[in-house]
Specification:
Helix 6 links the parallel strand 5 and strand 6. The longest helix has 17 residues. An 8-stranded mixed sheet has the order 1-2-4-3-5-6-7-8, sandwiched between helices. 40% of the residues are buried. It has 14 helices and 8 strands. Helix 5 packs across helix 6. With 326 residues, it is of the alpha/beta class. Helices cover 45% and strands 16% of the residues. The two termini are 31 Å apart. This is Protein NDRG3. Belongs to the NDRG family. InterPro entries: AB_hydrolase_fold (IPR029058), NDRG (IPR004142).
Length: 326
């Protein structure tokens, strides 16, 4: 807000009597930001894509004749909850005009998903990565720019390692390149069992909030925290437990700076308050320096929601630097 406007408002308030001010405040209608729901807004066309491990939902936005951006979401989210607000952000409009976005949903994580069968064997992280080939074949995509968060970032990284000729560049947020440690393994096992037996418990909810935002989320942005707590409570808990378990059983990416590293340009992003900062630093040390940029966004944990303007600008500059965006 301009300084002159603030000064004028202060002067106006000083001139008003306390009674008049109280009357004016009573007439103000309050709007609750927490009414926001993380559901599809209809901007994407959803299609089922058949794979060797069952169908998956892919949401498409834009002209399919343009270069492809493929997104992959994190734990506890789907394409709408993870990416919709960010790609609707005003600073992303120039990018949307130049690309077609393909949002991949992990099996059973879409809105209103029915519970997966008891005998369903949830794909491993490598198998989830291999499903991307079916998406490329279905839509006739030769190569793409990947945009992933958390578990989705790990999946896209796996695909790029195995198929460098099909990936043009990667934007990976909070990407972990190592296998789960003992603390994570034990904590996650408890959560997955609770999700299967009791649904979304407070313990599982607390874990998801920590995973996405880090600590003190309510202090930083109470309304945003409320929105995501509501989002997590509407998930299919059994399906989520399967996805979490798959992520928990992930293998090390098996890359190093000296050999077998990711061969495409990578924008490696985290939030300064994210619990995954150290993971991104480790990941960065295993990438080729000439093709990698590590970016830590201050004062946030979930960068797409808390600092969308900074991520949009970084994304645009990254694409421009690689010759994929005007």
């Amino acid at each position: 807000m301009p300084t002159t406007t603030v000064q004028e408002n202060i002067a106006l308030l000083n001139m008003m009597s306390s009674d008049n001010l109280e009357d004016d405040l009573k007439s103000v209608q309050l709007h609750c930001p927490s009414d926001r729901r993380l559901q599809s807004d209809g901007a994407c066309v959803e299609e089922r894509v058949r794979t060797s491990r069952g169908d998956i939902l892919v949401a498409v936005r834009g002209d399919r004749n343009k270069r492809a951006i493929i997104t992959y979401h994190d734990l506890g989210l789907n394409y709408a909850a993870n990416f919709q607000a960010f790609f609707n952000f005003v600073d992303m409009r120039s990018i949307l005009d130049q690309f077609c976005i393909y949002h991949i949903n992990a099996p059973g994580q879409e809105e209103g998903a029915s519970t997966l069968p008891e005998d369903f064997s949830y794909p491993s992280m490598d198998a989830l990565a291999s499903q991307i080939d079916f998406v490329l074949g279905h839509f006739g995509i030769r190569s793409f720019i990947g945009f992933g968060v958390g578990a989705g970032a790990n999946i896209l990284a796996r695909y790029a390692i195995a198929n460098p000729q099909k990936v043009d560049a990667l934007v990976l947020i909070n990407c972990t390149s190592t296998q789960a440690g003992w603390t994570e393994w034990l904590y996650q096992k408890i959560n997955t069992r609770q999700l299967r037996s009791s649904g979304m418990t407070q313990g599982a909810l607390d874990y998801l909030m920590w995973h996405h935002f880090g600590r003190s989320t309510d202090d930083r942005n109470h309304d945003l925290a409320h929105v995501y707590k509501d989002c997590f409570s509407h998930l299919n808990p059994v399906n989520l437990s399967m996805f979490i378990d798959s992520y928990l059983r992930r293998t090390d990416l098996g890359i190093s700076r000296d050999s077998n590293t990711i061969k495409v340009p990578v924008l490696n992003v985290t939030g300064a308050l994210s619990p995954h900062v150290d993971d991104t630093v480790t990941f960065n040390g295993r990438l080729e320096p000439a093709k990698t940029s590590w970016l830590s966004i201050s004062d946030c944990g979930m960068v797409l929601e808390e600092q969308p303007n900074k991520i949009a600008e970084a994304f645009r500059l990254f694409l421009q630097g690689e010759g994929y965006c005007r």
